[in-house]
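Two proteins follow. First one:
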Amino acid sequence: SWADKFVGKEELVYEFNENLSFTNRYNYNYAQVQSKVFSPLAWFGPGKYANTALNADLASPLVEIAPDVFIERGASVNEERAGYTDQTFESYLNYDKSLDTNHRIKGTAGVSVFQRHGEALGGTAFNIPNNSVEYADISANLAAGGCLNNVYSWEFTERLVSAFVRAEYAYQSKYLFSAILRRDGSSKFGPNNRYGFFPTFSSAWLLSDEKFYKVKWLDYWKLRMSYGVSGNDQIPNFSYRALLNGEGVYVFDDVLTQGVAIGRPSNPDLKWETTSQLNIGMDLTFWKKLDLTTNYFIKNTKDLLFQPEVTAILGSYGPGGYPPIINAGDVSNKGVELELGYHTDPKKKLVSDINFNISRILNKVTSVPEGVDYIPGAAFSVGGDVATRFQEGYAIGYFFGYETAGVFQTQEEIDAAGVIQEVAQPGDLIFVDQDGDGKISFSDDSDKTFLGSPIPDFTWGLNLNVKFSGFDFSANIFSAIGNEIIRNYERQQPFANQLGYVIDRWVGPGTSDETPRLTTGETRNNVFSSFYVEDGSFIRLKNVQIGYTLPKKAMKKAKMESVRIYVAANNLITLTRYMGYDPDLGSSNALSAGVDFGMYPQAKSIMGGIQIAF
């Protein structure tokens, strides 16, 4: 893929007097993006999942594009041409005036408009000649009847309109007050709830500037408090409307016809997700070297935006359909943040800067949509169960499944267990009877329980910077402690790879009480259980860099300002007991935050370079 970009900016600042000014700003970004993906016929050996050819001779498979309608796939190519335009307009007045030596006021009032427009056209061609990338173009399509598959186009326009007022007041530079009032309108919501009002208020007291303050070893002491409301509209465009999607190809009178179905139900009452947050904290400096920042916060999010399984809200949906985005409940977060920094005199030969931070968050769902007990989250693809939930009284996305208690060693142990567990065989997992009815139920939730949370008990980080005689060293460490992760990428299928732990699996009585037998036959070992839940705690050296800056005297002779040579590494070391690829998971959906789908892990990289300034 490649892109052509154009970026422009216009800014006008007019000062009426020393106190009042007007600013008008316009930003323009344009990008033309072209992409081409070529998929050749390939043969990796018998039974290989990645095979796209039928055999080693690269015979082409047939693709069913409609009931009883087949075409040769051959090599294929997908092409897309897309254009994007971003425009931002801001216009505001600034006022800044000191009334006397004690009072100072500042104010801002204005409006802003953001618009993004995009459009694209794409399609896929089959039977590219010679199985060669040289012919990878949709114009080289040799499919029967010249059929282009998945021909599509799209276009969207989104807008965000804002009006805002900000006021600040300072008395003797030690009593500080500010307020922000803003009203935002987003095209991503329907006419019923397009606009939101988001105020913010803050105050601070610089205690160390008071005349009565006499603590010499505590140089700086600031108390602060703030309360604010913010809005979230980060959802796809037109999410409040029902959309028609292409759904299958049909044949009428020997003519291929693209089907259409309702892709997503409408939700005209979709509205802003709002978050109100209270912060209380203080900033301290000891002996002009040691900084301490503390913060206690209460953060409540209402009308959470996400896309649940439709079956929990509206029932099932037809082919080509998918769940709507809804406002689905409220979440509360309470926590404490602590940051400690040590700084030496930058004029000294040895200069060091060390920062340590730690935080703890308590998360709880405070309400769910009326009429449901919970909203199901991420699916457990190994056994097909739903593994996470959004349920009142629990952490968002908590894990819900079967608790295990070891592995059956013999048939006699199964017979004497006192709990009926269907299809159990020696080597299978033992499930705990949560409701005490004498049998394990796999048809409902009566024997499922809480298995963990993706939210860490606490996180911490460490940043280190040291300079000495031209040498510099920096490092960044991040850690999460106390969270759990679901291994959601294993397959008990022929030709599927396995993790190394299966070497120690059960193969006979007494061989393992932790890892069950491997089988492709009927088993309950693949239902979601605590066997697939692991401690996700980790410590990672995120970045480390060592550099040397050549002496300035030598650089002056070479007519250069400075020369620095460095070596750097990212994700160099990770300490964890998690068996998966990467414990530092990323997710755009809160209900799958702790679910490892086996995505590509963060890469370890080592690099070096020279920085020259003239």
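Second one, unrelated to the first:
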Amino acid sequence: MLSREDNELVTRTGPGTPAGALLRRFWQPAALVEELSPRRPVKAVRLLGEDLVLFRDEQGRLGLIGRRCPHRGTDLAFGRLEDGGLRCVYHGWLFDVAGRCREQPAEPEGSRFHEKVRHVAYPCREVNGIVFAYLGPGTPPPLPALDCFVAPPEYTFAFKGYLECNWLQALEGGIDPAHVSFLHRFFDDDEPAGRYGKQFREDVAGAGVPLSRIAREYFRPRIEVEPTPYGLRILALRGLGAGRVHVRVTNLVFPNAIAISLGDDMVITQWHVPIDDEHSWWYDIFHSYRAPVDRETMRRDRLELYTLPDYRPRRNRANDYGYDPEEQRTRTYTGMGFDINTHDTFAQESPGPIHDRTREHLGYTDRAITAY
């Protein structure tokens, strides 16, 4: 349980807030690369409560600058991409990827006024399907050498999804290993759709049974939390008898990413990124250790569950997440289908836009949440 003041401290991330200042000192996902259309690579972005516009200039350089022109506040998301930058359509002011004003064509000939104008601009890096931005002070730190960053591009797949809740309650779901036994419980271990919940249905090496069965039958794991140089290592240990123990490891990469294995050959790294205080994105990079991934199939599967161009879940609060009481009675614990993202979205959004932690009661299974 947190005090109301501490809850505000850890959930508010806009400019000038303590949590916002912390998150800005780390590279944060700003957009998927696929959102920058080759025809017109310009994309409005809201990140950590700031309205920005992401663009790629003719030389392929990425820029992330303030969305409102510093002249009269006109929306640069509708600017002209030309002459080495993004040009405001109101008076033709031109800005490069570093936020420098390069031209002010209506000003008197020979004017150097443009040299005095510097727009908000943040460094960007493109890594395996995601554009990352650094919104903090000083020189950006190097990107960490995460496996998903150093993996060959053909071994990775990136996607994202929209959440109607604060970033922190979404992240906390990822470091809560006990919920797997309940929220993601399937009553039949056969895969009905061939793909949803696949990581829970594949046989666990050395156990000969799928994780879904282990989680269902051994629902009281021993949980250990270990501090590491990068954050936390969270272990959920389930005794299977005959001296066997199933260990599921979640790595929390401080401050807002988790990495967890999906079977024997793939890992998912997921960031929970504030759009503002009441909305967030999850960004995923899947990477395989063994072989190139089938990106087209993975994307097609995701688009059965999410809409474009807004990346919103088809099962959402407005339609009760597809809840079916008959399915809940006979097939799944939630009655909300077989996709675990839907289950997580429900659990993370239903406490409200910003969870009131003054009302919660944390127990043994919440060890990672209290450690964080």
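SUMMARY FIELD: The longest helix spans residues 340-349. The chain has a mean pLDDT of 93.
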